[in-house]
Amino acid sequence: MRRRAGGSRSAFKRQNVQLPKKNLTSAMMLELLALPKEFDWVNRPEGLRSPVTPVRNQKTCGSCYAFASTAAIEARIRLASRFRLQPILSPQDIIDCSPYSEEQSPSIQSI
Question: Where are the domains of the chain?
Fold first, then answer.
């Protein structure tokens, strides 16, 4: 934790600001109860398109970070454009520009 947070546990606790607690009104409770118990971006109800692109095979090159990032950005662009834009982004561009690329290693421990 220290290495990633850049400080001690006590320094982290001092910076950890709590959101103010809010009493739930009956209207808020009704809204919460109306939410679905589960949500699946891939298997959407009939008539709703999925922003999720097909799975890509990254093989053993240790580039899961690039594949996950491009898939998330592609989905976000589809949603934001209401599916007018259908980008297919390149994980290879991220890998080629990354100083942390493992070059065909199945491990990404250096990140």
Answer: 7-97
pLDDT tens profile 1-16: 445 545 677 777 777 7
By three-state DSSP, how is residue 89 classified?
A: coil
Residue 42 to residue 44: CA distance in whole angstroms: 6
DSSP code of residue 107? -
Contact call for residues 89 and 73 (beta carbons, < 8 A): yes
pTM comes to: 0.59
Distance of CA 35 to CAs 12, 21, 24, 29, Å? 34, 21, 15, 10
Residue with tokens 């561009």: 93
